[in-house]
Amino acid sequence: MRAHAQIQVGDSKQKVIALMGQPDRIEKCNDGDTWGLTPEQRKFKEQCTDTYVYDSFLRRDDVVFDKNASVLAKYVSVSP
Q1: What confidence score (pLDDT) does residue 1 get?
Q2: Ordered structural domains, the chain, with CATH
């Protein structure tokens, strides 16, 4: 998805929806144990609230949001 490349950290949920459309699903960030995580991973996990997931054939685009409904990170997973 070319729209995924246009998304930047700090963008709003509204901008993500305008570029990508409604997500296929919304996943809540895991509130589980943080044992064994690095300080950086622990900080990320504390900031993350939910993830918009966009699925297409052999591809998954994730957009992660923080408490302010701003993009915290984005990922692309492609199946071989």
Answers
A1: 62
A2: 2-78 (3.30.1450.10)
